[in-house]
């Protein structure tokens, strides 16, 4: 049986880098989830810090709505620096 | 080694990419060179000396924490207040294209404010408290935003000079010793590149337009040049926080070094624009390769910092009004969330939910 609720696991690989999602596990509470995550996901010194987050606490965007959800950014090319012509000879821009 | 920041031909994005690479490399090195002490201050010092990042749950000196909160908050406030001078021209942008671009830029500034408030919150300060400190004047924002935007060309001058100066200041912050701040700055600097270029393009277009448009561009540059130089802060001899911040590797270069770097860049960029920088004494020193320039009026800077600039009262009053007038949105959002949770019709929203 899957003991307890589902927890998503985030590991900071090394000092200076952000925590990255690495997977999930089942555990009855947060403390056990943290210990199990240590045992499962950092057996080979993969990280220096772990976050566990109850999967139910995560609100995710829906794959079905992906297009409509992200479409508004598609036609705004002017958000990218490459949209602008830099005149010949102008450095450091 | 960090002279790389000043590489003569490096674009802004190259410099940011370098900083990001250095961060990853330092992180990789950390696996081997773990500090060999359990004593807190010594551990902290070793991490900083090894170009590693201090992370939120690490021990850190109280003064380091306090300095970072002050600096990151001031930076966040500057992004938020900085929306006002440019926002002034959104409704009067000369074309739909320029309007969409300016909207996107002002929207970015709000996003930058958010990244920075979030970085400050990792140090244990509450976002609401930061907002309060801005609107009751206990914390400052960059003095540059206390100058008015009198013409459309000012939008170009802000992008070129003000964002340009901000970038020169901010690229070294991508290497700051505090992890969340460094990572936020890498993200911000990548986005700033568009801001500077759009400003430059506006000025280039005006400078190559009608005589009237050209005069408008020159007038904007004349008014924004010295306030932009003042953005780097007081001269090194009078800078109160610099030495300790350098030792902590929060700051990498002195105010005067960064100002010089900015001047050298702008002279070349101005010549391509075909506009003059309003400094009759600007000339290249053949020995150093740097440009000698007239210092901004630091007495004026101190006056503006104290609250006596042309727009200080207006900027803070606008911010306070926006915060107060937005209270009902925060209350409505909280009431809606409560209603969804309870599945019933909510009680009246609690007062003062932020």
Radius of gyration of chain B: 22 Å
Q: Quick one: which chains have the greatest interface? A: A-B, 25 and 38 residues
* Total count of helical runs of at least 4 residues of chain A: 2
Terminal-residue CA separation of chain A: 59 Å
Largest sheet strand order of chain B: 1-2
Nearest-integer average pLDDT of chain A: 88
Percent in helix of chain A:
10-25%
Largest sheet geometry of chain A: 3 strands, antiparallel
Descriptive notes:
The complex is a heterodimer of chains A (93) and B (354). The radius of gyration of chain A is 21 Å and the shape is elongated. Chain A has a 3-stranded antiparallel β-sheet with strand order 2-1-3, covered by helices on one side. Chain A has helices spanning 30-41, 66-70; strands at residues 5-12, 20-27, 49-54. Chain A has 93 residues and is an alpha+beta fold. Chain B is mainly alpha-helical and 354 residues long. Chain B has a two-stranded antiparallel ribbon with strand order 1-2. In chain B, α1 packs antiparallel against α8 (179-207), α5 (96-121) packs antiparallel against α8 and α7 crosses α11. Chain B is globular, with a radius of gyration of 22 Å. Chain B starts with 11 loop residues before the first helix and ends in a 12-residue tail after the last helix.
């Amino acid at each position: 049986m899957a003991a307890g609720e589902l927890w998503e696991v985030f590991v900071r690989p090394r000092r200076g880098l952000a925590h990255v999602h690495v997977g999930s596990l089942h555990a009855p509470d947060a403390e056990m989830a943290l210990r199990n995550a240590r045992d499962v996901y950092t057996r080979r010194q993969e990280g220096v810090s772990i976050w566990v987050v109850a999967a139910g606490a995560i609100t995710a965007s829906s794959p079905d709505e992906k297009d409509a959800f992200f479409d508004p950014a598609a036609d705004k090319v002017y958000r990218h620096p490459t949209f602008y012509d830099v005149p010949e000879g102008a450095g450091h821009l | 080694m960090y002279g790389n920041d000043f590489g003569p031909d490096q674009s802004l994005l190259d410099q940011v990419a370098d900083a990001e690479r250095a961060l990853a490399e330092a992180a990789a090195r950390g696996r081997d060179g773990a500090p060999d002490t359990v004593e807190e201050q010594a551990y902290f010092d070793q991490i900083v000396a090894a170009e590693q990042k201090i992370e939120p749950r690490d021990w850190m000196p109280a003064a380091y924490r306090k300095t970072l909160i002050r600096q990151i908050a001031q930076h966040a406030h500057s992004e938020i207040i900085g929306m006002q001078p440019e926002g002034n021209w959104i409704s009067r942008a000369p074309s739909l294209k320029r309007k969409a671009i300016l909207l996107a830029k002002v929207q970015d500034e709000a996003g930058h404010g958010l990244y920075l408030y979030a970085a400050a919150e990792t140090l244990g300060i509450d976002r609401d408290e930061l907002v309060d400190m801005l609107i009751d004047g206990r914390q400052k924002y960059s003095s540059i935003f206390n100058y008015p935007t009198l013409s459309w060309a000012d939008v170009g001058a802000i992008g070129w000079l003000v964002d340009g100066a901000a970038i020169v200041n901010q690229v070294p912050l991508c290497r700051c010793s505090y992890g969340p701040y460094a990572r936020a700055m890498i993200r911000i600097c990548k986005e700033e590149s568009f801001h500077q270029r759009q400003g430059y393009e506006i000025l280039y277009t005006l400078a190559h337009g009608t005589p009237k448009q050209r005069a408008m561009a020159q007038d904007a540059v004349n008014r924004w040049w010295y306030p932009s130089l003042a953005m780097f802060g007081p001269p090194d001899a009078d800078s109160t926080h610099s030495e300790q911040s350098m030792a902590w590797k929060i700051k990498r270069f002195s105010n005067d070094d960064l100002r010089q770097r900015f001047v050298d860049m702008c002279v070349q960029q101005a010549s391509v624009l075909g506009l003059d920088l309003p400094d009759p004494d600007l000339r290249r020193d053949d020995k150093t390769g740097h440009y000698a320039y007239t210092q901004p009026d630091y007495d004026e800077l101190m006056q503006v910092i104290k609250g006596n600039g042309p727009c200080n009262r207006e900027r803070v009053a606008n911010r306070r009004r926006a915060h107060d007038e937005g209270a009902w949105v925060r209350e409505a959002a909280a009431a809606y969330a409560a209603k969804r949770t309870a599945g019933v019709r909510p009680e009246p929203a609690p007062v003062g939910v932020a």
